[in-house]
């Protein structure tokens, strides 16, 4: 598609997701709970749980929605929970999945509330990592790809609510 400049093809993503699932299946406890951050991690999570199944893992899952105040491609700093999970967290290991780790504020906030509710451990898995934009001291335990400081879309990631269904990750020209 002429409108987009490719960064990661569908085949590259599939291979990476399979490798991540293998790693996660080996390292996490059998009684883990998967929590996906809506909406950006929807496509990644859908592929990851099927890859996990392929590697012998079958975990319950739930969803949260988090929003940063503000619009556009710049997030504002304040994070709030707009949709909560219904699963009980006390004593449970959690795999928290997001689309991209940028400033780190979103996942730091989610990790903090899950820890406060008694999750035994919270692992962070992010499809993309933009380390140059980090504001809080946070690393993901599982990372699909590192990306430079450019705004990417596709494979769940949107720009103004569009392009989530693209099977690849790209920069819009
Ligand atoms: P942060 O780590 O800054 O708290 O938040 C990361 C969130 O900002 C992601 O979940 C995503 O919604 C959004 N975001 C950051 N960088 C990009 C990008 O390059 N493309 C898209 N589509 N969203 C981004
Ligand atoms: Mg997000």
Which short descriptors sum up this protein?
single chain; 173 residues; alpha/beta; 6-stranded mixed beta sheet; 3-stranded antiparallel beta sheet; 3 helices; 9 strands; binds magnesium ion
Q: What's the topology here?
A:
Blueprint lengths: L3 E5 L1 H18 L5 E6 L3 H13 L6 E8 L10 E5 L9 E9 L3 H12 L4 E9 L12 E5 L5 E2 L15 E4 L1
Parallel strand pairs: 2-3, 2-5, 5-6, 6-7
Antiparallel strand pairs: 1-9, 3-4, 8-9
Explain what you see.
This protein has 173 residues and is α/β, with parallel strands linked by helices. The chain has one domain (4-70, 79-172): Rossmann fold, CATH 3.40.50.2020. Helix content is 25%, strand content 31%. It contains three helices and nine strands. The chain has helices at residues 10-27, 42-54, 105-116; strands at 4-8, 33-38, 61-68, 79-83, 93-101, 121-129, 142-146, 152-153, 169-172. The strands form two sheets. It has a six-stranded mixed sheet with strand order 4-3-2-5-6-7, with helices on both faces. β2 (33-38), α2 and β3 (61-68) form a beta-alpha-beta unit. α1 crosses α2 (42-54). It starts with a strand and ends with a strand. The model has no long low-confidence stretch (mean pLDDT 94). It binds guanosine-5'-monophosphate and magnesium ion. Guanosine-5'-monophosphate is lined by residues 40, 75, 98-106, 151-153, 157-159.
């Amino acid at each position: 598609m002429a409108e987009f400049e490719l960064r990661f093809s569908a085949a590259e993503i599939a291979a990476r997701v399979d490798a991540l699932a293998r790693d996660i299946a080996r390292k996490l406890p059998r009684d883990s709970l998967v929590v996906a951050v809506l909406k950006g991690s929807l496509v990644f999570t859908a592929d990851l749980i099927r890859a996990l199944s392929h590697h012998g893992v079958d975990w319950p899952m739930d969803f949260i929605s988090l929003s940063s105040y503000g619009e556009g491609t710049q997030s504002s700093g304040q994070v709030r929970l707009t949709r909560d999970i219904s699963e009980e967290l006390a004593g449970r290991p959690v795999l928290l999945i997001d689309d991209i780790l940028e400033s780190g504020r979103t996942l730091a906030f989610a990790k903090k509330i899950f820890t406060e509710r008694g999750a035994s451990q919270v692992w962070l898995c992010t499809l993309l990592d933009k380390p140059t934009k980090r504001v809080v001291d946070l690393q993901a335990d599982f990372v699909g790809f590192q990306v430079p400081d450019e705004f990417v879309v596709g494979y769940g990631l949107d720009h103004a609510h569009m392009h989530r269904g693209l099977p690849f990750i790209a920069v819009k020209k």
